Amino acid sequence: MARPAGPLSAGPGPAGPSPARPVEGPAGLLRLVARLTGVCMLAAMPSPVPPRRGLPGPPRQRAEDACPGALRLHMADDGALARIRLPGGLLTSRQAHALADMAEEMGDGHLDLTGRGNVQVRGLADGCGSELGDRLRAGGLLPSESHERVRNLVMSPLSGLDGGGFADTTEWVRSLDALLCSDPAMAALSGRFLFALDDGRGDVAALDADVTIVALPAGRAELRIGAGGARLRIAARDAARAALTAAEAFLQAAAAAGPDPETGRATRAWRVRDLPAAPGAPSPAGTPGDPPAPAGHPLDGAALSHRLHRVGIPCSRPPSATGPGTDHGTRPGGPAPAAVAGAGGAADGATGTAEPGGRSPYAPGRPRPVDPARDPSGPPAGPVAGPDGRYALSVTAPLGRYPARAWRLLAATAERSGRPELRTTPWRGVVLPALPRDAVAEAARRLAAAGLLTSPGSPWSGVGACTGRPGCATSLADVRADAAHAVRATPPPDTGRPEHRSPEAEPPDAAAPGAPALLPVYWSGCERRCGRPAGNGPWVDVVATGGGYRVSLAGAPAGAPAGELADPPEVPPGERLAAAVASARAGSPPAPAAPPPPPGATSAGRPDSPPPRPDGASRAPGAPGVPGAGHAPPGRTRRRTPGPCPGTHGGRGDGRGHGADAPSTGPGTAPAAAGGRPGAAGPGLPDPPGAPAGPPPGGGRRPAGPRHHHTSEDLVTGYAYEKDGAAIYRASFATIRAEADLGGLPADLSRVAVRMIHACGMTDLVRDLAWSPGVVARGRAALLAGAPVLCDARMVAEGITRRRLPAGNDVVCTLADPSVPELARRLGTTRSAAALELWRDRLEGAVVAVGNAPTALFRLLELVGEGAGRPAAVVGVPVGFIGAAESKEALAAHPSGLDHLVVRGRRGGSAMAAAAINAMASEEE
After folding, report:
1. Rounded-to-10 torsion of CA 681, 684, 685, 690
2. How confident is the model at residue 297 (pLDDT cuts 50, 70, 90)?
3. Close Cβ partners of 749 (under 8 Å, ≥ 6 residues apart)
């Protein structure tokens, strides 16, 4: 017999015994028994679901907060559930061992991490309250019984470990936790109220917390209330007290809210977004459903400022010139552009920019830049270098579910490091703070053998799910099993740009095994969506319907209004569902079902035209929903305004689908960057007159409808342009040096950067460069000594100017070797990665240039770890959307400390790699 959902209690809650109620039916009888016996018994009240903008589902219907805790348990179909708060995710290895003991001896043998970095133990027996409480107290995990549910504090997981950010937020966490537990009034907060303490990098500032503190330069911080609410500048030393004061103001506002005007019942606000708006108060643009605090409200800027001053905390409004929430740091050569995204997309710091003397852009005091187009996804799995020579190791588990034996291994690994601490993250991961350099690789290997994810290439990256059946009575499906099937059945779709691929590169459907998808995906067993992603970034929403699943995009892509979802069709479990999820993760949600076309016809109305690929590979980068480009609201596409061809007679755009005018990929239009053919007017443009009929290479479709043909009247017989090649070079390099900020680069690296910018035309490339000190000098010395240049693609090899090589160096690309296809099949990887197996006897002391395939760069790092040889210098600039950014981060943080030059993020390419080698090879401009 299924147990109804509801909270359990090990005794009276923080507010004291519940008032007397009539005993009605079995549920009422159970409540009465629970009050009389004080043991884990059932209370008949379903867990309420707070509303979230942009997400359909039932609104909150109960005035009582039933959020589970360590003492107030929740009864599920698989037993009782305890949620143990871990403020900031901080815990000792001894506490971690204690949790593993509880999971094995009292629960189902697993520990589940939540979206706030808390831990859950499932499968507990009835009557467990007393023993569980004793164990938690003995482990130091229950400092206050009355406040245990309100200790919801998240912080930047890498704070104080990687040299990023403006402050070490661990002290903020400890101070605020102590203040919360010592203030009796704070026990009235709900178990859902959230504090976020961000060190300036913008990761937890995007989690839609109720009170957020963001570190700023020069010992300052910013206090933020909710989403779009008040923002005030304070001293960093006052961070914890200011957060507590804001929580007090919230409780006062909640108490003064009064009854619900529609139902007449008393209103209990659990979170800032639940506070009623004043009549007629407008919602801020782009955040419907989250009205700002109106003037005179206890949470508006003026009232909160007065409250802070009253308790001795000086504060001020953010500078109006840059807008609320902005505070740009400075660096040599001028102000740094904003890069750290906070709530609502505001910037809160400087980019991680290079300092004189070759210091890495990830140096202390510089927050790592965060892409404001999407929610940050936390630290990627793998090692992260720290300024003290030690490494943090970030790991996670499929669906955030850790077997007790793997959890114990994490604790033991931390103990062997000499710093017996762990940090859980709001992305259901764990960070081991300080491993010695020579122990990182072995630790990662041992943890991976235990089933944990220790590299960013896992297909499980970004996949989350609720409990589902059989643990949850309200779930309509076994979502964990269906999610696992989808992960196994469909590799993440490859959305790399065809124009950046060399002829030898792997085909679009040969995505690297384990490459992370573009968007996170969350599987829910019902409309409640328990544990869904926080913040406002885009994610794929997969919801069970009873007969299948609905797959759609949720959240708000950058530049698009929030709160809009497609009306997706129902997809049955199996291969179709896996393909639909993979397509949506690439930014292409499935459209409502349409009647089939007549025989011999296609969606464009022409015979012989290939149908759209179900895996979304023909979808263009920059299409709606794909991060990092112009976006339409989720569920929509943008169409180019009819007119002349781009680049001919005033047509707008570059023809590659970039920017707000990206063409639709629906019927009648050509996918950008996928439909171009050699000799065409440009990628995605109409074919020249006389081009043969049929689909063009690359998987695109020709535009339907009339085509623009040039006539002799369109042609111009003469143009005024520079024809002296040497003059063009001189003017180009002069322009680059005038427009690019090269002031923070060493002289030899400056020459390399100029060449790389010349190859790509992007003067802002400097801000994404990361390097090891002396990499250019070591690469040049190796070339002078006759070292070979090992290239991942023929395009890189062909781009290297042989006359610049100082010792007639060999330029090697093994991708075309006849043995590579079979080797790739046997190893289960791409041809680009398999080709590196032929480098083993030449890798020691070589100069490596990877410009095309992230899988090749990952394999290079594996070869070095296997002892195949250590290259003298690595230029790692693979381009793309799948694995490119992660492979370059892995190179920069590799435990062996390889000398490297990378371009962070998605940018890169064969031309950049060849340009860097050419600049290393010769000092000639």
Report:
1. 70
2. low
3. 358, 769, 771, 775, 776, 901
Q: Are strands 539-544 and 900-903 parallel, antiparallel or unpaired?
A: unpaired
Q: Please state, in angstroms and rounded to a whole number, the distance separating the CA atoms of residues 665 and 784.
A: 50
pLDDT band of 394, cuts 50, 70, 90: very high
User: CB-based burial of residue 294 (10 Å sphere; 0-12 exposed, 13-18 middle, 19+ buried)?
Assistant: middle
* Best CA proximity match to 809, nearest among 794, 788, 790: 788
Residue with more model confidence, 848 or 45: 848
Distance CA 71, CA 83 (A): 8
Q: pLDDT averaged over the chain? A: 73
Alpha-carbon dihedral sign for residues 607, 609, 612, 615: positive
Q: Which H/E stretch holds residue 303?
A: helix 301-310
> How far is CA 454 from each of CA 35, 460, 494, 511, 857, rounded to the nearest angstrom?
46, 11, 22, 20, 17
**pLDDT confidence bin for 259, thresholds 50/70/90:** low
**Choosing from 74, 758, 894, 900, which is the catalytic residue?**
758
For 734-748, letters b (16+ CB in 10 Å) and e give: eebeeebbbebbbeb
- Residue 649 a catalytic site member: no
C-beta separation of 571 from 551 below 8 A? yes
Q: Is the model's pLDDT at 48 over the cut of 80?
A: no
Q: For 25, phi and psi rounded to 5 degrees?
A: 75, -175
3-state secondary structure 416-438: HCCCCEEEECCCCEEEEEEECHH
pLDDT at 323 over 50: no
Q: What is the pLDDT of residues 458-517, one digit of tens each?
A: 888 888 899 888 888 889 999 999 998 888 876 544 434 333 333 333 333 333 333 444
Tokens 């936790």 sit on residue: 177
d(CA 670, CA 666): 8
Is 495 within 8 Å of 881 (Cβ atoms)?
yes
Question: Which of 101-115, 609-623, 774-788 has the lowest average pLDDT?
Answer: 609-623
Q: How far apart are the first and last CA of the chain?
A: 79
> How many Cα atoms sit within 13 Å of 507 on the Cβ side?
6
Q: What are the two backbone dihedrals, phi and then psi, of residue 351, each rounded to the nearest 5 degrees?
A: -70, 160
Confidence at residue 263, expressed as pLDDT on a 0 to 100 scale: 54
How large is the average pLDDT for residues 181-194? 94
Rounded CA-CA distance 55/638 in Å is: 22
pTM of the model: 0.55
The two three-digit tokens of residue 496, written as one number: 């790399």
Question: Which pLDDT value is given to residue 459?
Answer: 82
Per-state percent for the chain, helix, strand, coil, to nearest 5 = 30, 15, 55
Look up residue 435 and give its two tokens.
């491993």
- Label residues 669-685 b or e (16+ Cβ within 10 Å = b): bbbbbbbbbeebbbbbb
Residue 839 Cα to chain centre, angstroms = 34
Residue labelled with tokens 């263009």: 620
Q: Is the pLDDT of residue 286 over 50?
A: no
Outline where 451-590 has alpha helix (H).
479-489, 575-585
What is the rounded distance in angstroms from the CA atom of residue 706 to the CA atom of residue 382?
52
Among 107-116, 316-325, 427-436, 754-763, name the one with the lowest average pLDDT. 316-325
Encode pLDDT of 208-220 as tens digits.
Answer: 899 999 999 999 9
CA nearest 918: which of 905, 910, 814?
Answer: 910
Is 288 within 8 Å of 565 (Cβ atoms)? no
